[in-house]
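Weekly puzzle thread! Below is a chain. First person to post its structure in token form gets bragging rights.
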Amino acid sequence: MAVWSIDYSIFGDCQFICSGSHDKTVRVCDVDNNKQIQSFNGYSDSVYCVKFSSYHYHNTRQHVICSSSNDKTIRFWDFKNNKQLQIFHGHTCGVTGIEFSQFNGGRYLCSGSCDKTIRLWDVETSKSLHVFNGHKNDVWCVDISPLQSNSKNNNKMNNIGVFGGNGYTICSGSFDRTIRIWDIETTKQFNVFNGHENIINSVRYGSNELINTILSGSSDKSVRLWDIRSCQQIQVFNGHTNGVFAIEYSPF
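Winning reply:
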């Protein structure tokens, strides 16, 4: 069956890949030994997104994957000890995209859902902190803005959402064909980007010299680059003959 999502991480000296599938499983592979080492079967519906948790590794040395599903839940799995750690309830429809914060050591998680909302969660307390409303259809993908170069004391909680130079935001892509940016602290919508002619399947914040840009991929077969400050489209990349489901900036 279809694999909806994959992620890669290094824990210690070991490389791992995890995957989420339409077959309702989360699977983990050891890259160095080229073999599957774990499979989790706790979901009752498709697994849409998977992410390794740097927060658990750096704070408790646990090897943890976070996953979201069409069964409305977000779950955390300890793949070294083969057990489920946490389960987040709150969305009223399938949970699609998830992303950890780069600030505060990955303590915060955002999620998008077919209930048209985005939620921000505190991984440490398992609490839902904020709900973001405004999309007119399913939210399929989310991202959290990267660390700001002019931010000091990035481990302090009060860095969340202090908008105006060093604040953090969430961007989301939806079936309503829009990309929206949200202030993490106030939950207010900051910008709306229009231009795609079909569902937006993937969004990603830029970093370094591209810190003020967003990249998006859509079922309209295009990849688009946007300027966050002006809300203007910078470039359209055409060439695909079908929908674009995953995009990423070059790391170099």
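Puzzle host: Confirmed. Bonus trivia for everyone else. The first strand starts at residue 3 and ends at 11.
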